[in-house]
């Protein structure tokens, strides 16, 4: 079985070297492994929770999309999309909202931290807290559960969110599992429960001041800074005050750690020697700049081209959304029906109704009746019903019969007619009065087969 791996990237800020080494590079490498099916998306609805400047949201989303592609994410191999293009995500968010315990959300770290800050400041506990912040874990659960993801690679700070997704998913399964199995004819559970995947080996890079590189410390080096800017930033990294000629520690040195993240093992070893031999900080930084620039240059070039052609990016992301929705549309259909929100009957299933657009070919249509059973009918190009299958317990049973009719045409029909007689019309019934004759049915099946060939 292929493992389905999914991760979201909140589209705030500009990607930096720490994001690259700690998240982008390992995620792209993992997406190339055999036996995995990867979903990567821009969590742009999540971005609205933290940022309210539309221009910045738009800019960051474009930059982050271009960054991942420039860094080698292959949209043919993975499914790469924008959260906001998948309407099933907010739909599922609501279904989950209605089963999520409020008490669970009260315990979310980000919300609790905001409340604690307010308490300390003597404010109302919910001062400045939006319902969006509060609901963050539910939206994230929908991101994950809408795709049946098994593994979710995230940083440690996100583990709680994955556990909440499991919790909420489990509750949905418990409440609606039976209804879902009845509605869809599928076995198992409606929602797959995900696991967090924490990569311990991944580097956290130090920033300019030696603390973890992070936007919140304002100590970052943008991944695609122009060479002059990159050089300036590298030269400003804090070091100890050892003079040239004095041996230097690699341990705890931001210059060394950054170098190592972009160097081969051999190059890192050489740098270790140079530190022991007392390389001057200026020289060490010069080497660091050269190494990073060399590693980044080809990607920077790609990035510039992508950002300059947003139409191409748009195309890639829309194609990604199309692929993504092949998963989410059928899933949500089943979940909505499980929750009692399905159609009363499929359009066209009611007496006298006509298809909105005249079909050019005969078609087999599947639908569900109020009795909860699964039906199908063969209609000709004008929408007249030629043949009707009566009441199956599951869409699978109906589907198998339809597949046979399509595959074997008249042969299957003859056999089924006999069975139908035997089963007193239980399985397939040729319509009585205004039904076209068997010849018309055979004709339609043939036309369909030819039309599809
Ligand atoms: N909350 C995640 C972060 O800040 C981003 C994210 C949103 C995400 N939806 C997700 C990650 C779904 C994994 C799966 O890093």
Features:
4-stranded antiparallel sheet, 3 domains, binds tryptophan, protein biosynthesis, Tyrosyl-Transfer RNA Synthetase, 453 residues, PH-domain like, elongated, 52% helix, 3-stranded parallel sheet
Written account of the structure:
- This protein has 3 domains: 3-204, Rossmann fold, CATH 3.40.50.620; 224-307, Tyrosyl-Transfer RNA Synthetase (Orthogonal Bundle), CATH 1.10.240; 358-452, PH-domain like, CATH 2.30.29.
- Helices cover 52% and strands 11% of the residues.
- The protein is built from 16 helices and 9 strands.
- A 4-stranded antiparallel sheet has the order 6-7-8-9.
- Helix 1 links the parallel strand 1 (3-10) and strand 2 (36-43).
- It is elongated, with a radius of gyration of 29 Å.
- Residues 351-359, 421-427 and 431-435 have low confidence and may be disordered.
- Tryptophan (TRP) is lined by residues 6-8, 10, 43, 46, 140, 143-144, 152, 154, 158.
**Count of extended strands:** 9
Instruction: Please state roughly what percent of the residues sit in beta strands, choosing from under 5%, 5-15%, 15-25%, 25-35%, 35-45% or over 45%.
Output: 5-15%
Number of helices: 16
Q: Biggest sheet, strands in spatial order?
A: 6-7-8-9
CATH fold title of the largest domain: Rossmann fold
Which ions and ligands are bound to the chains?
tryptophan
Provide mean pLDDT, rounded. Answer: 89
Terminal-residue CA separation: 31 Å
Task: State the secondary-structure class.
Answer: alpha/beta
From the coordinates shown, what is the CATH architecture of the largest domain? Answer: 3-Layer(aba) Sandwich
Overall number of structural domains: 3
User: What is the CATH level 1 assignment of the largest domain?
Assistant: Alpha Beta
| Structural Rg | 29 Å
Query: What are the segments in which pLDDT stays under 50 over at least 5 consecutive residues?
Result: 351-359, 421-427, 431-435
The arrangement of helices and strands along the chain is EHEHHEHHHHEHEHHHHHEEEHHEH
How would you sum up the global shape? elongated
Q: How many strands, which pairing sense, and closed or not: the largest β-sheet?
A: 4 strands, antiparallel
Assign a percent range to the helix content.
40-55%
């Amino acid at each position: 079985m292929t493992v389905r791996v999914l991760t979201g990237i909140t589209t705030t800020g500009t990607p930096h070297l720490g994001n690259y080494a700690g998240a982008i590079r390992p995620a792209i490498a993992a997406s190339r492994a055999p036996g995995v099916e990867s979903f990567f998306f821009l969590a742009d609805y999540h971005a609205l929770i933290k940022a309210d400047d539309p221009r910045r949201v738009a800019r960051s989303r474009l930059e982050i999309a271009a960054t991942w592609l420039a860094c080698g994410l292959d949209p043919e191999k993975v499914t790469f999309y924008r959260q906001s293009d998948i309407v099933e995500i907010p739909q599922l968010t609501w279904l989950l909202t209605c089963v999520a315990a409020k008490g669970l959300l009260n315990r979310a770290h980000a919300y609790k931290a905001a409340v604690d800050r307010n308490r300390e400041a003597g404010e109302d506990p919910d001062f400045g807290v939006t319902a969006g912040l509060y609901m963050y874990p539910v939206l994230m659960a929908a991101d994950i559960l809408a795709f049946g993801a098994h593994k979710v690679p995230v940083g440690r700070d996100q583990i709680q969110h994955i556990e909440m997704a499991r919790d909420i998913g489990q509750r949905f399964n418990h409440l609606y599992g039976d209804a879902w199995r009845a509605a869809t004819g599928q076995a198992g559970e409606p929602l797959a429960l995900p696991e967090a995947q924490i990569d311990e080996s991944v580097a956290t890079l130090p920033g300019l001041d030696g603390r973890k590189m992070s936007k919140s410390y304002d100590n970052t080096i943008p991944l695609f800074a122009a060479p002059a800017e990159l050089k300036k930033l590298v030269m400003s990294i804090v070091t100890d005050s050892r003079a040239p000629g004095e041996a230097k520690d690699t341990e705890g040195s931001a210059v060394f750690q950054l170098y190592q993240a972009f160097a081969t093992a051999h190059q890192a070893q050489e740098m270790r020697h140079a530190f022991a031999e007392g390389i001057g900080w200026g020289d060490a930084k010069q080497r660091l700049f050269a190494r990073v620039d060399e590693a980044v240059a080809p990607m920077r070039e790609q990035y510039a081209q992508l950002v300059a052609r947003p139409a191409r990016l748009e195309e890639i992301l829309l194609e990604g959304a199309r692929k993504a929705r092949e998963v989410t549309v059928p899933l949500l259909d089943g979940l909505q029906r499980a929750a009692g929100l399905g159609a009363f009957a499929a359009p066209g299933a009611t007496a006298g109704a006509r298809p909105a657009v005249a079909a050019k070919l005969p078609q087999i249509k599947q639908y569900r009746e109020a009795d909860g059973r699964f039906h199908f009918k063969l209609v000709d190009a004008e929408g007249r019903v030629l043949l009707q299958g009566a009441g199956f317990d599951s869409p699978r049973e109906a589907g198998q019969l339809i597949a046979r009719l399509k595959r074997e045409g008249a042969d299957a029909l003859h056999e089924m007619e006999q069975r139908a007689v035997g089963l007193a019309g239980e399985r397939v019934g040729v319509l009585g009065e205004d039904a076209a004759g068997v010849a018309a049915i055979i004709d339609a099946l043939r036309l369909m087969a030819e039309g599809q060939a």
